[in-house]
Amino acid sequence: MADWQTHAVENQVDEAVDYDLFSTDPALVAAVERAGAEAFRDRLVGQGTWLGRAETYALAAAANANGPTLEAFDPRGRRVDRVVFHPAWHEVLAKAREHGLVSLPFASNARGRWSAWAATFYLQGQVEAGVLCPATMTMASIPVLRHEPRLWQALAGRLLDNGYDGGDRPLEGKGSIWVGMGMTEKQGGSDVRANSTTAVAEGHGGRGAAYCLRGHKWFFSVPMSDAHLVVARVADQGPSCFFVPRWLPDGRLNGVRIQRLKDKVGNRSNASSEVEFQDAHGILVGEEGRGIPTIIEMATYTRLNCVLGSAAILRQCLVQAIWYARGRRAFGRLLVEQPLMRSVLADLTLESEAALLLAMRLAAAFECDEPGATPAPSDDDVALARAWKRIMTPAAKFWVCKRSIELAGEAMEILGGNGYIDSGIMARLYREAPVNSIWEGSGNVMCLDVIRAIEREPATWQALQADLERGASGSGASVSTGTGTGASAADDRRLADCWAELSEALAAPADVRQALGRRITERLVLAAQAVLMRRHAPGPFAEAFVASRLGARRGRIVGALDPRAVDVEALLERAFPR
């Protein structure tokens, strides 16, 4: 009888699983240590181990393959506007909450808490990014709601609770809650001042009072949240911010009607929706007409999360690419032994570490600028922290989020056809990458925000400028521990040229300055990343970053660097130890 076995499965490499995401990332471990967050190490190891399990990767795949569905009515025709999720979503979301993704920065004044939280967020984003959306918005709502004493008193315990309550019922009966966001309308997009949704006071009005909302939202994030922060227009006052609960205190469903769920390119485990407000009940947060500044405070935090989320995508792409290259053979050698492939992997490694260092520096700035920071920072430290927050957060969001899109494609290509298969993690990472660049302000909005901050806050810009210039001159680098580097003369020249180009662009007339917004932001971020690499990365790797990003090479093709100037094997071993 004929044997119809026509092939054997060989030279195939499964995806990297069953490893501790935290302990196998030396750059992340070092960043946590620098921040004084050693007290959080055990919980980060525990999270990294849980996330790295094959079973957790399977949960992430299941949550994305079986996305949420809308049940607008119950079997008897009553309007319920309920979004149903796969059980895998609830399991991963519950773990994310348990790991402190919402509460960690605000639950105490422990030193290093913001860096520990950033590491937590970065680890989670490598395996299942959909849960980052509800965690991000809930976490970012906390600073806003803290300004409203009555609301904060009622909600604080539920917002800071690390337990998971997936029940759909009024706030008063919940153990922990989620808060979403509703800003975007059809006609306005990023231009929130063009919003047409209206709010009318149910009584005398004013801060903390009840209002009736009518209108629509083209994107309404995580509709099953227990409440949303919403921008609506008050007559004669302008855009205002409202806390809109899903349920009314009397147990009735609030007048927020889900029209449909959005069919997105990525982020498919998470629900985004289009809604109408049909006399929805809302509570004014802040003053009438001050909705934009109120919601921008929230956006400052969500933009940081976008940076961390994109850095996480870069990291997971890198890990999967290195793992695959170490196991796959082609043309008589392992991929990782092929000279040109080594250049590509080295370039991906430099990009990933620079993105991580930038994100962690921002997290440290947020901690320094928080009330009650310990140890108490000096006035100069606070001023510098605010400079990093105000100017570098939108700059980093622009650059890191853009780079993650391109580099996810490069990492997918390393896996070839196996990377392009939709059931694999590389395809999911590739689809996920664009959302961080679009959400919370597109690339152009970020660049214009950077320019506005520099123009309107000259003292803030001067503080950041002085910090980066110190780094560009080589001061502040640690040379005794093998991290950080005394700069080479060539590196000094490259950074000086980058800084001169940036200064020249900022001195241009206003219209020209705006037209150069992306160039200005690119130069600023690359200068900042170069300084951070020189302060914290091994010297040869920092030099390779400066040479490849600020040298004569003007293109951005991954792998088009000179590998002769760096120990590629040491670089890859640092990136993902065998």
Annotation, overall tally of beta strands: 11
Order of helices and strands: HHHEEHHHHEEEEEEEHEEHHHHHHHHHHH
Largest sheet data: 5 strands, mixed, barrel
* C-alpha geometry: globular
Low-confidence stretches: 475-486
**Helical stretch tally:** 19
Strand arrangement, major sheet:
4-5-9-7-6
Strand content: 5-15%
Helix content: 40-55%
What would you report as the Rg, rounded to the nearest angstrom? 24 Å
Structural class: alpha+beta
**Terminal Cα separation, in Å?**
46 Å
Chain-averaged pLDDT: 93
Q: How are the secondary structure elements laid out?
A:
Layout: H1 26-34, H2 41-52, H3 54-65, E1 69-73, E2 79-84, H4 87-98, H5 113-125, H6 132-145, H7 149-160, E3 179-182, E4 198-201, E5 210-221, E6 227-234, E7 238-245, E8 256-261, E9 272-285, H8 291-327, E10 329-330, E11 333-334, H9 339-368, H10 379-414, H11 417-420, H12 425-438, H13 443-456, H14 458-472, H15 489-506, H16 510-515, H17 517-536, H18 539-550, H19 568-575
Parallel strand pairs: 3-6, 4-6
Antiparallel strand pairs: 1-2, 4-5, 5-9, 6-7, 7-9, 8-9, 10-11
Helix pairs in contact: 1-9, 2-5, 3-4, 5-8, 5-9, 6-7, 6-8, 8-9, 8-10, 8-12, 9-10, 9-17, 9-18, 9-19, 10-12, 10-13, 10-14, 10-17, 13-17, 15-17, 15-18, 17-18
How would you characterize the overall build of this protein?
The structure is a single chain. This protein has 19 helices and eleven strands. The chain has helices at 26-34, 41-52, 54-65, 87-98, 113-125, 132-145, 149-160, 291-327, 339-368, 379-414, 417-420, 425-438, 443-456, 458-472, 489-506, 510-515, 517-536, 539-550, 568-575; strands at residues 69-73, 79-84, 179-182, 198-201, 210-221, 227-234, 238-245, 256-261, 272-285, 329-330, 333-334. The protein has a five-stranded mixed beta barrel. α15 crosses α18 (539-550).
